[in-house]
Amino acid sequence: MIWLRQAATIARRELRGGLSGFRIFLACLALGVAAIAAVGSVRVSITDGLAREGRTILGGDVEVEFSYRRATDAERDWLDDLGTVSEAVDFRSMAATGQGRDADRALTQIKAVDDLYPLVGEVELDPAIPLDRALADGGAVVHPVLADRLGLAVGDALWMGTKRFTLRALLLREPDAGSAGFGLGPRTIVSLDALEGSGLIAEGSLFDGDYRILLPETPDDALDTLRARAEERFADDGMRWRDRRNASPNIARFVDRIGSFLVLVGLAGLAVGGVGVSAAVRAYLDRKTPVIAVLKTLGAEGRVIFAAYMMQVAAIAAVGIAIGLVIGTIIPIAIGPLIEARLPVPVALGVHPGPLAEAALYGALTALIFTLWPLARTEQVRAAALFRDAAGPSRVWPRRRHIVTLALAVVVLVGASAWLSGIPTLALWSAGGIVVALAALVVAAWGVRRLARWGARHVRGRPALRLALGAVGGPGGEATAVVLSLGLGLTVLAAVGQIDANMRAAIDRDLPAVAPSYFFIDIQPDQLPAFLDRVETDPAVSRVDTAPMLGGVIKSIGGRPASEIDHWVTRGDRRISFAGALPQGTRITAGEWWPEGYDGPPQISFAQEEAEEIGIDLGDEVVVNVLGRDIAATVTSFREVDFSSGGIGFVMVYDAAALSGAPHTWLSTVYAEEEAEAAILRDVAGDAPNITAIRVRDAIALVTEALSALAAATSWGAGATLLTGFVVLIGAAAAGERSRVFEAAVLKTLGATRRTVLTSFAIRSALLGAAAGVVAIAGGALAGWGIMRFVMEAPYAFEWVSATAIVLGGAVATLLAGLAFAWRPLAVRPARVLRAQD
To answer: Which residues form the ABC3 transporter permease C-terminal domain (predicted)?
Structure first.
């Protein structure tokens, strides 16, 4: 088409002048794209590493796991027919420096292995000796953290259960650590044969029998057939299957979720950058007003001019996106070793096209959304109006097709973020939050201008303040650009601060009030009387709760296979209990508890909230595999279970007749004064070494550490958004430098001192920053309340410290940006500036 060729010619000639005026445009777009590309690349690097090294992470091609038991001889023969099999038993216990009540003890995660372990990969020890040599004759290897905690050195003795082991080496690297999941204690490895006579594994003990299998050459697609055969063979045995394709599902799920969330934070940064992109395009078109007017006077059509400047913006946007993609590719490679050092899984560093394409798509859509409106003015406004527009912005609306295109671009951007993030609900809420925040910031900027205009008319005796208020409230001011650019970044940062402070406050507030001191598990039935005699007679103990406990794997709920129900209750094994009479403090919310002494068909009471989430109704049948036996029970009641209290809480409780005959142990929570905790642990573990004590404060410390890492990652994302906002802020200050030069010249001519002019500039900047901070506090508080209330399901309280820091930070940021561009206006001579206006 002729008009497109004309537009291309104009665009090419215009671009010969270089990128003057588009540096902020490039910086904003590049920063936003780089943040999204880097986060996406890190996420794909980890997930690809999990897929590529799945065999090493899993410890074989296949893992078959039995909860609370080892494979029978017939089951083991079937597994041996598949390939080379290595057996391990995994459980928690206490490691001690001796026997009796004077020994020091610490919780550890024990893995007892056979002579074939590991089938894949290598165990790294210090000193570097073979694992079989380290484990021979009652040897053990422990993680350095456990050795430091107990003051152990190589060659020292340590006790687990009733058996003495010798520390032969420190465990530096466990090849299959990534498949182990969350553990409350550092790792200890011993020989499987060494468990004999230790008293650690007994009927009802909580442990997993793991069987890693190294298959002959087997393609991935054949694993589905093999899995189907295994599930058919072990349908009634409570078997769980994993293979090399999904070696560490928990880590993969966590990385995917946090990565998706950070991409959404990156989109907020792109929205901030979009404000700078829009401002840069507006400023560029304002400078091009004479050129556009001449072109229209010479007969150029509106569509030609629109296309010409759209081509220029598209070319520069492509450059900005390319710069962002390069930076987003380099950053993960540079910090990859640091990430890999903090993860128990390998990271596949490299260039990943998927996240780069996603970042480029977001960047292109953002550039289109924020530049289409100002570009459309060039087509709609007449030449005469464009000449008049040099004195002020045009209020002309774009044509309908441009508004429709803008709306479609927004829909595509939101839809792409919802689809590609994998968390559509959060993505839609985030998009809505960004739109609401932008609208609120625009309204706030308007309110600041109106308030400043009113204040300028009423302030007396303070010329610097009056000049600042007049400049903020006057036409063509920078209030909107500053409040928008800085406000959205501060809003994200404020939300992170509110959430982090509330989570920490919730932990600090709830732990002393309601959490027990210890969870004691693996209490054998014959040990329960002596245990209760010790803790219930202690005056420092305020409360002791006990319940029988055993494990099971949910097979089906209401006729639906558990594998088809995506809920935490149906994943992995589940602790269950049984009771006769209604336990004290239990509140039935629906249905009826079975009568005391009930001996009919199995009944089950389900936790109400979890039942609602899964979709369970009274009368539904739940099938749970307990120690290889399927037990079908009817749901006859729902209970209120508060897992946040830290006390005993079971999703499922059976009637006593259904499970009391099955091998089980007892669980107990002990609420005691902190000063008495050490003595209780010493006495209980000294008398019964097989009992495992989990200190709740230590467990919560691990959760707090994980939450801190999550908050730190989110803070980095918010920091990138804030950096983009500061770049936009600098752009707005730079764009207003010419008007400030003229303003300073007029003020000096009228008798204002340099001090008065500088003070006026400083007050103006601080006011705008404070306004952005105040709006950010409101937005951050609202977002924090929503996350705490609906996602964390925890109480929310406004946190003043971070809120005050946000306001001060906003004021200081705008002050620094404003002062950086105030020296030239102060230095110019009024006569030279005013003569140039003739």
So the answer is: 265-377, 720-825
Residue 351 tokens, joined: 């260039």
Q: Residue 100 carries which DSSP code?
A: S
State the distance between the two ends of the chain, measured CA to CA, in whole angstroms: 44
Same domain, 128 and 197: yes
Task: State whether 49 and 143 are in the same domain.
Answer: no
In the numeric block, the tokens 């099999």 are attached to 85
**Residue that terminates a domain, selected from 621, 652, 672:** 672
> Is 684 a member of any domain?
no
Whole-number Å distance between alpha carbons of 623 and 215: 32
Same domain, 318 and 240: no
Show the tokens assigned to 759: 């003070």
**In a shared domain, residues 241 and 266:** no
pLDDT means over runs of 10, the chain (838 residues): 72 67 77 82 75 75 83 87 90 84 84 89 89 91 89 90 90 78 77 85 78 83 81 73 72 64 69 74 73 72 78 86 89 76 67 86 87 76 51 59 86 83 72 78 82 80 76 69 72 75 66 71 88 89 89 87 84 86 88 91 93 92 85 93 76 90 87 85 83 76 63 64 68 64 71 76 79 81 78 74 76 73 68 58
What kind and span of H or E run contains 695? strand 692-695
The answer to whether residue 832 sits within a structural domain is no
Q: Map tokens 């899964």 to a residue.
A: 614
> Do residues 4 and 86 both lie within one domain?
no
Q: Mark whether 579 and 598 lie in a shared domain.
A: yes
Bridge-based pairing of strands 629-639 and 105-113 is: unpaired
Which amino acid is residue 478, in one-letter code?
A: E
CA angle, 380 then 383 then 388, to 5° = 100
d(CA 534, CA 708): 37
Q: From 672, 698, 726, give the residue that closes a domain.
A: 672
Q: Which of 42, 57, 121 is nearest to 345 (CA)?
A: 57
Q: Is 270 helix (H, G, I), strand (E, B) or coil?
A: helix
Residue 506 has a pLDDT of 64
Per the structure, the complete domain to which residue 239 belongs is given by 54-246
- Compute the residue count for the chain: 838
Q: What is the 3-state secondary structure (H, E, C) of 534-596?
A: HHHCCCCEEEEEEEEEEEEEEEEECCEEHHHCCCHHHCCCEEEEEECCCCCCCCEEEECCCCC
Q: What are phi and psi of 137, to 5 degrees?
A: 55, 50
The tokens 């796991």 sit on which residue?
65
User: Amino acid identity of 137?
Assistant: D
Number of structural domains (the chain) is 3
Residue 5 falls inside a structural domain: yes
Residue 495 lies in a domain: no
Q: What is the pTM of this model?
A: 0.65
Tokens of 232: 């058919």
Q: Helices marked H in 619-676 — which ranges?
A: 656-659
Clarify whether residues 84 and 201 are in a common domain: yes
Residues 692, 94 contacting (CB under 8 angstroms): yes
Helical ranges in 474-546 per DSSP H: 479-514, 528-536
Distance CA 187, CA 168 (A): 14
Tell me the one-letter amino acid at 51: A
| 34 contact partners, CB below 8 Å, separation of at least 6 | 323, 324, 325, 327, 328, 331, 359
Residues in Cβ contact with 56 at an 8 Å cutoff, skipping those fewer than 6 apart: 120, 121, 175, 176, 346
Looking up tokens 């890492």, which residue turns up?
Answer: 709
- R_g (Cα) of the chain, nearest Å: 34
Q: For residue 153, what are the contacts with CB-CB under 8 A and spacing of at least 6?
A: 147, 167
- The 3-state DSSP composition of the chain as helix, strand, coil percent (nearest 5) reads 60, 15, 25
State whether 277 and 157 are in the same domain.
Answer: no
